[in-house]
Amino acid sequence: MNAWWMTAILALTTEAVFAQVYGTRPDGKAITELAPASAQTVVLYFVATDCPVSNRTFPEMRRVREEFAARGVAFRYVYPNLGESPQGVRRHQAEFDAAGEALLDDHGVLTRMTHARVTPEAVVLRRTGAQWATVYEGRVDDRYVRLGLERPAAQNHFVERVVDEVLAGRAVEPAVGTPVGCAIMRPGETVQR
Fold first, then answer.
1. Are 139 and 181 in contact (CB under 8 A)?
2. Rounded Cα distance, 96 and 101, in Å
3. Which ranges of the chain would DSSP assign to H, the alpha helix?
């Protein structure tokens, strides 16, 4: 084999080895980009198939995704719990938001990167060069006051407000309150804020 081929193989192998893998799609394909190159903002919704709070928040998450996807904002439903199966995630997405993009955080990369602790929890990232900067992490809305205490409808739609602020180039208001939901289950791993 000549030197050119060896160099090309080494370059491709090195690129594949060092590519950031954020998780896998339910079809098993690795996700190495959080969003298309054209997207300057990405919203990560941490969800779980077996969390009633997360499931009751899906209509709000879907509504915000539908409102802003046409404006170049990327959305991902992140399934962070160990034990989530690709089949279970596909069924869950079909029931709650078939058009939404899901990923399994099989190795906890996004959970560690964002410090997410519960489902549902939202993280809004803005592209800064080749990196992503966190501009918001917290509640999706204020429907849940605390576990067991729920308003009939949300009064504040935090993710919608934040994405609107980011797209308008305004300063983002900080998160209000601690996210309410089901603990992310990653036995043996600790997540710190």
1. no
2. 12
3. 3-18, 52-68, 86-96, 109-114, 158-168
Q: From 99, 47, 96, 45, select the one nearest 69 (Cα to Cα).
A: 99
**40-183 CATH:** 3.40.30.10
Q: Is 101 helix (H, G, I), strand (E, B) or coil?
A: coil
Largest CA distance in the chain: 69
Cα–Cα distance measured from residue 26 to residue 176, given in angstroms and rounded to the nearest whole number: 32
For every one of its 193 residues, what pLDDT tens digit does the chain have, with 9 covering 90 and above?
544 444 434 443 333 445 689 999 999 999 999 898 889 999 999 999 999 999 999 999 999 999 999 999 999 999 999 989 999 999 999 999 999 999 999 999 999 999 999 999 999 999 988 889 999 999 999 999 888 888 999 999 999 999 999 999 999 988 888 899 999 987 565 544 4
N residues, the chain: 193
The structural domains of the chain, with segments of one domain joined by +, span 40-183
For residue 37, the SS3 value is coil
Q: Strands 73-79 and 102-104: what pairing? A: parallel
The neighbouring-strand residues paired with 74 are 42
**C-alpha triplet 35, 95, 187: angle, nearest 5°:** 65
Residue 71 DSSP symbol: G
Residue 166 token pair: 């980011």
Residues 8, 11, 15, 17, CA torsion sign:
positive
